[in-house]
């Protein structure tokens, strides 16, 4: 059903998925895969903003440079930041148990 919506709305909805779920969502159907693959940079940039992986200063710098989105790999940024968050949570849990 996601593919039946206007692209802008479908992208917005996909951006709110948990990062771990974006890959699984792309496996739902060819249409979902196409939507996510074709709009990967936008979806992951929106997700980075939603999950606060960027500072306000970073967003201002991004918006002032028209080519900045082409330089940055948003999917990779989200992946690295998520790994850091999960590592911190794992370390905190270990310390609390020990």
Automatic annotation (TrEMBL):
Tell me which residues make up the F-box domain.
1-47
User: One Pfam family of this protein, by short name?
Assistant: F-box-like
Q: Which SMART domains match?
A: FBOX (SM00256)
Protein name per the record:
F-box domain-containing protein
């Amino acid at each position: 059903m996601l593919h039946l919506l206007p692209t802008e709305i479908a992208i917005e909805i996909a951006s709110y998925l948990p990062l771990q779920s974006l890959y699984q969502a792309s496996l739902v159907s060819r249409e979902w895969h196409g939507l996510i693959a074709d709009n990967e940079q936008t979806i992951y940039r929106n997700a980075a903003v939603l999950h606060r992986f960027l500072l306000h200063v970073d967003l201002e710098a991004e918006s002032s440079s028209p080519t900045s989105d082409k330089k940055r790999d948003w999917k990779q940024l989200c992946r690295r930041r998520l790994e850091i968050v999960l590592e911190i949570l794992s370390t905190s849990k270990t310390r609390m148990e020990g």
